[in-house]
Amino acid sequence: MTVPDSRPVRPVAEPVENPSLSLRALNAIAHVYAKAVSENPVVQKVSPARPQRFAGYEFPVRVEAVVDEADGVKSLTLARTDGKRMPGWLPGAHIDVTLPSGRRRQYSLAGKPPVEDRYRIAVRRIDDGLVSPEIHALSEGAELTVRGPRNAFPMAAEEHYLFVAAGIGITPILGMIQAAAAARADWTLYYHGRTRDSMPFLAELEALAAGTDNTVIVASDDLDGVPHIDSVLRLAREDSALYVCGPIGLSLALRDRIPAVAPGVKFHTELFSPAPVVDGKPFAIRLSTTDEVVQVGATETALDAVRRARPDQAFSCRQGFCGACIVGMRSGAPVHRDRALRPDEQGTAFALCVSRADADSELVLDI
User: Fold this and answer.
1) Cα 100 from Cα 76, distance rounded (Å)
2) Is 344 helix (H, G, I), strand (E, B) or coil?
3) What is the pLDDT of residues 222-267, one digit of tens each?
4) Which of 42, 191, 312, 313 is buried most deeply by CB count within 10 Å?
5) Residues near 171 by Cβ (< 8 Å), separated by ≥ 6?
6) What are the structural domains of the chain?
7) Residues 115-127: pLDDT tens digits?
8) Could you count the other beta carbons within 10 Å of the beta carbon of residue 283?
């Protein structure tokens, strides 16, 4: 069986099409609170605005347990070293983990949210990688730094879910299945790996489906070949929401076949790498602190260009949702493409990782 060829498309994170009322209410309350605080002169005096905004929490953790979940996959259970509770989270959330070497990577949270005293992540070892071998060498008691959690893969309330996970992509999906089970929603999981021995959390997933009408379908390259896209989509119902986490080729193949095979299905996926710049125009950035001008090429991001001059410029998601790379903006004609800035912030702030400027124009940024 083969995956149908997919035309080259620009990979973008799919939006949640039907957020729950509770999430909408929380979002509205947050915006009202932020507006009230930002316009309060007392708050402005005590805590003046800064050109750099850092999203999320940052706190020290200790590795409490290391478990071999599958061939080449270890899970780490993390607990705070300061005795405080972990920030709460929702299915699909991830954290930034800073290792003893100083390297930082993002990992999805696995398990049943919200858990206030422990986080769990799962990491597949890449033999020629820089980070996964370091994580696999960690032992109980190792100390790390965590920032977050943040969520670029939120889960909406639905009547039926079709979950598709490939390999380590099961990590965020596991929390979603836990939430679906708690809400007594119907769900089906298609879980694919290289071999069954390489697939983590199988026992947990099968326990979630036991005694219910929900289904876990396990397939592997060595026994079943590559996924048959149309067959996977036929597992959906007319009212299904499809949540996919795995290689970009699998996500795009599923998305491209939805109109022909399952036209009523709502599609959601998560990206593990930034989308390429495919429609960019060159522009310039002037750094206000030194008056230095940085040229941004048509196929590079403003973040990459700025980091040539400022290697320590902060960033995290590189997809426009976390806010870590937002800087102050003094002038220019920006083209905002992020999901972090509110409309009232767009005149004075700029997200380096995805936003751009009009062709051949200049932005003056507080860097």
Assistant:
1) 15
2) helix
3) 999 999 999 999 999 988 999 999 888 898 899 899 999 999 899 9
4) 191
5) 107, 108, 109, 110, 121, 122, 200, 245
6) 57-151 (2.40.30.10), 153-269 (3.40.50.80), 283-365 (3.10.20.30)
7) 668 999 999 999 9
8) 24
